[in-house]
Design brief:
There is one protein chain. The chain is an all-beta fold. It is built from no helices and eleven strands.
Length: 103
């Protein structure tokens, strides 16, 4: 039987960032392990998504997972060693039964 989520990724997030006197103090980078499936965009489509800064970025692939994004975190990088991928995260979209990390 084929595994639906065959890959394990390390998602680097910025945790515990906070405001001090109106100035943002960045948190520490933390790696969390996420199982899922990576699919590159290989059919020539151009998909644009907005990142956390509000800028549009072109999506090159998707990482599907059952894990929901941690609330209040900034998502930095996705690393999938089995696919030799280490890319910045554009956005992490939660859905009812799964979530999609756009890279």
């Amino acid at each position: 039987m084929v595994k639906r989520y065959p890959h394990t990724a390390i998602v680097t997030i910025e945790a515990n960032g906070h405001l001090v006197d109106g100035e943002w103090i960045p948190g520490e980078p933390v790696g969390i392990s996420v199982s899922g499936r990576y699919d590159p965009i290989s059919d020539g489509r151009i998909v644009l998504k907005r990142n956390s800064a509000g800028d549009e970025a072109q999506v090159h692939g998707y990482f599907y997972t059952k894990m929901q994004p941690p609330a209040g975190s900034k998502f930095l990088r996705l690393k999938v060693e089995s696919k030799d991928i280490d890319v910045p995260i554009i956005c992490w979209e939660p859905y009812q039964s799964h979530s999609i990390i756009n890279v």
